[in-house]
C-alpha cells in the first residue's frame, strides 16, 4: 500500500463524518466556481453560501 493512501483515507473519513448538508453545499459551491478567477470565486462563495445547515446546533453541541 502506498504511504499516501492512509493519509487520504483519513481525510476522506473526516470529510464524510461532517454534516452531509455542509458537504453537499460546499461541493456545489466548488463546482460552480471551479472556472472562475480567485477573486470572483471567493465572491461567489460569499454571496451564494447556503448558510447554516439544519443540523448545525446538534453538531456544535456534540463538540463541547
Offer a few descriptive terms.
flat; mainly alpha; 64 residues; 72% helix; single chain
Radius of gyration: 15 Å
- Shape by Cα distribution: flat
Structural class: mainly alpha
Number of helices: 4
Largest sheet: none
From the N-terminal CA to the C-terminal CA, the straight-line distance is: 36 Å
- The total strand number stands at 0
Q: What is the ordering of alpha helices and beta strands?
A: HHHH
How many domain regions?
1
Helix content: over 70%
Strand content: under 5%
Mean pLDDT across every amino acid position: 84
Which spans have pLDDT < 50 for at least 5 consecutive residues? none
Describe this structure as you would to a colleague.
With 64 residues, the chain is mostly helical. The protein has one domain. It is 72% helix and 0% strand. The protein is built from 4 helices and no strands. The protein is flat and about 35 Å long. The mean pLDDT is 84.
How would you concisely characterize the structure shown here?
It is built from four helices and no strands.
